[in-house]
Amino acid sequence: MEGFLHQIFSGLANGVIYGSVALALVMIYQSTHHINFAQGEMATFSTFVAWTLMQHGMPYWGAFFLTLALSFVGALVIQRVVLRPLEKAPALNNVIVFIGLLLIFNACSGWFFDHTIKSFDSPFNDSWMFDTKYFSAHQFGSVFVLLLVLLALYLFFRFTSVGLAMRGAAQNPDSARLVGIRVSWMLALGWGLAAAIGAVAGMMIAPIVFLDPNMMLGILLYGFAAALLGGIDNPWGAVLGGFIVGVLENVLGAYVIGTELKLTVALVLIVVTLTLKPNGLFGKHVVTRV
Amino acid sequence: MNQASDRKWFWIGSALVLVALLVLPFLLKNYRVFQLNLVMVYAVAVLGLNILTGFNGQFSLGHGAFYAFGAYTAAILMDKFGVPYWATLPVAFVVCFVFGTLIGFPALRLAGHFLALATFALAVAVPQLLKYKGIEAWTGGVQGIVLSKPQPPFEFRLFDQALSPDRWLYFFTLFVTLVMFLLAWNLLRGRVGRALVAIRDHPIAATAMGINLPVFKTLTFGTSAGFTGLAGALGGIAVAYVSPDSFTANLSIFLLVGVVVGGLASIPGAIFGGLFIQFVPNIADEISKSAPAAIYGVLLIGLMYLMPGGVMGGVHRLWARLRARTEG
Fold first, then answer.
1. Residue A91 and residue B311: Cα distance in Å, rounded?
2. How far apart are CA B233 and CA B72, in angstroms?
3. In this predicted complex, what is the ipTM?
4. CATH for B30-327?
5. What is the pLDDT of residues B210-252, one digit of tens each?
6. Domain residues of chain B, as ranges?
7. Contact yes or no for B124 and A101 at CB 8 A
8. Which phi-psi region, left, alpha or beta, contains residue A180 (left: φ > 0; alpha: ψ -120 to 50)?
9. Which range in A249-253, B138-142, B242-246, B274-278 is most confidently predicted, on average pLDDT?
10. Where exactly are the structural domains of chain A?
11. Chain A closest CA to B299's CA: distance in Å?
């Protein structure tokens, strides 16, 4: 029983990470109707930037926020320079460009920061008051940080005019343009936000899985499974889906199938969700008008 | 130029190309022949994916999985059951067809980016599945399976070069490739091809025309997987070695890249796709030792801007411009 509880709790902690990657996917999906394949690699790159900053003697939180800002600006620039000319292009061209970005970021992570596995410090050390038997301080801390991010996002979209404009641009770009919203810039903002969220996820997971250029590949898949499970148009669903996927992955890995097949869990989850409940657990049923 | 003389030139050109292809391996070193062999293998794999993505509009970033299954089917049949290499190809096709149909069914629910990501999950999971302990007795686990290259059935010399196993396999692959391209051409130029394109361009109108959407889409997935699986079997025989780590997610990415580079919905484009997959990583490697993948990525994005229709799209555009000039 003790061990089982332990598995569930560490599953929940991983689930938060998957949830945040899912959240980033949902964010980009809602604002652009694209799925960014490079999301994971961009997050890894951001984490490397944070690592470098810390190696040069920056305090953790300073590096954390500077990285967020850099990721935001970086993704904004990428959207403006690389993706804007392709806004009207067919989906396949976009996918290919995303793949190109994925390859570039992955290669650059390895090139600039080399391929050795690095440890990444956690700001929440063991002397923290929440360090309990089931939950390490870092796990607790990362849950807290990500819930904070979620809250901030909610407040941003609900109560600020920029957030309202972004929602408008996503829901009905033509009408949004007519009322004076710069739709294209809203897309860029969405990219920036998603990159920042991804960076948070990267910095939170790096102390657990260690930092290397391929850190996020599996996590991106789990994130996608979480997003689908929760319903791809529902941010809260994405986070909940993340928890479910995290717990399932851990419990199944520990008791049923062993650690070798953990990635297959994501695949099976994706296929099963799509076959049995294509809109996810909390997604809207979309009816398209012919 | 009128139609009849167009056609005549087409046949003369094809015959010349065929002769060149038959003589070529005797003019090159064994290693180059082996590389050309792989170009054809990748061309068939890209052709399979192009049937799905180019003609039917379904994305797949997981075709490396079918390539892997095909290669493993051939390897296991040859290694454990002593089946001759040529007999493994139809089996690989059927196995991958069944597998592709099974994957194609949940894929009905997905479009565009989602399908790409879901199939990508398949591609990422494959190396793990192949390493799985439970089937190690068949797959050889992490070690993979080492095969021996088939020996040529007769002796032959041309330009003082013997018919080596690599050269023999080249002819074998050439023959299979021609058959597969003919099959694809026949499949796609008629009723079925039109149905696939109709589904891609306007699914609702296609349904209204009486096309059974789920059946067509699932079977297309199966056929496409079958083509790629057969290519995998050819590749496995040519390389004479299969292991889980030769079928990473990158392979799937490269296949889709090959489709886009060659040109969507273009059968001859698949050949350029094969050339790209085989040779461009080497070129990228020569430009920058430290980050060949980055060069590759930059090339890809650049291509999307300069030639969104792929090589065949570029060729068609050039051809149209030349025609307009000579006639106008």
1. 19
2. 7
3. 0.76
4. 1.10.3470
5. 888 888 888 888 889 999 999 999 888 888 888 887 887 778 8
6. 30-327
7. no
8. left
9. B274-278
10. 2-12+23-127+137-217
11. 8
